[in-house]
Amino acid sequence: MAQAYFRHLNYSLGDEDSRVELHALPADARHVVAVAGSGGRVVPLLARAPRKVTCVDISDTQLALTELRVAALRQLNHTEYLGLLGYEAMSIQRRLELLSSLPLSGPARTALEPVRQAVQDGERIVYLGRFEGMLRTLSRFVGLFTGKRGQRMFDQPDVAGQRTYLDAGFPKAAWKLVLLLMGNSAVLNSLLYRGDFPKKNRPESAFRIYWDLFDRLFRTLPVRSSFFLQLVFFGELRYPEGYPIECDADVFLAAQRAARNADIQYVRGDIIQHVQEQRDVDFVSLSDVPSFLPPDRERDFLNAMKPGLTPEALVVTRGHLRVASPEVQGYDVVSERYSDAIAQERTQLWRIHFYQRRS
Questions:
Q1: 45 with 285: CB under 8 angstroms?
Q2: Which Pfam families has this protein been placed in (predicted)?
Q3: Which DSSP state fits 27?
């Protein structure tokens, strides 16, 4: 796996809409194993009250940030949670007080010291990741090229209005230049991956992939409902209706109740190997881990995890420019079962696949 990329705080908000995994996770699962990421992809899963959740990552910093989110979920109220993370306004002093009050492990507190310093300097946690920084940089180019006419998409009253504006008022020529920039692998590599960019294997050009995904977002979802679009156009979250699902009050409260009783563990290591070593896992949220695997492991990861999975366990994968095509012996491909949830995913960055272990 691309170790150099994962040594840093890459995600503080994230690039996935975890509504899809939340929709698919059965209530009262026995053991969920998930890539930790920023923790924002784990918190919503707790709303289904799994008995055990194991958060796995190869980055100490991402695990620490996940531990912070879970500790905040258990201890803070909804308003405090949003304020601490930076979704909502809060004084620096209050953020620091809340941060210091959380019962974090020693290693997590040490790993998060740069985060504490950034909060002390007035920065918001949700914008500290490398990915979020890349989108904030990109937003300056978007503003330079598309100006107020681009941002006017967010003033449309509904999806029908967005479609009309896209066809009649949106600065398409300038937008095409933005997407050509996004589709340039050298640019993405320098902005985000620093030499560890997973090799694209989708047949379409990167430009076509980005053109199509933004077209879907503009034409099918209220643009204010997408945190991804808000970051691309404004470099910040301006509309609460687009906050990630961890911010939803009902999801938060359900997750909080469950988190206070669930067995939540943090494991630094290889998630596929970790699942392989278990015997009771009934849901695996892999994110795009398979995209970073060498070819032989990319083909074999489902087979490798099989010993740790219960019958009918679900494995969820995501792929962006690179989409894994694993061998599926012993599994049913059940992605179509979740097609409606996938179509409503608020970033549209991903090809999402579901695999179910056969009984």
A1: yes
A2: DUF3419
A3: T
- Rounded to whole angstroms, the Cα distance separating 130 from 61 reads 12
Q: What is the residue extent of each domain of the chain?
A: 5-63+245-357, 130-242
**End-to-end alpha carbon distance in the chain:** 31
Could you tell me whether strands 351-357 and 309-319 are parallel, antiparallel, or unpaired per DSSP bridges? antiparallel
In the chain, the amino acid numbered 133 is G
1-57 confidence digits (pLDDT tens): 444 444 579 999 999 999 999 999 999 899 999 999 999 999 999 999 999 999 999
DSSP secondary structure letter of residue 277: T
- Percentages of the chain per state (helix, strand, coil), in multiples of 5: 55, 10, 35
Shortest CA distance to 153 belongs to which of 136, 171, 165?
165
Q: What does CATH list as the number for 5-63+245-357?
A: 3.40.50.150
Report d(CA 296, CA 335) in Å as an integer: 23
- Lookup: tokens for 117: 């310093």
- Residue type present at position 10: N
62 vs 155: CA distance, rounded Å:
35
SS3 label, residue 252: helix
Higher confidence at residue 195 or residue 280? 280
pTM of the predicted structure, to 2 decimals: 0.95
Helix (H, G, I), strand (E, B) or coil at 344: coil
**Residues 291-335: pLDDT tens digits?**
999 999 999 999 999 999 999 999 999 999 999 999 999 999 999
Burial of 241 (0-12, 13-18, 19+ CB in 10 A): exposed
In sequence order, what E strands does the chain have?
31-35, 52-57, 263-268, 281-285, 309-319, 331-333, 351-357
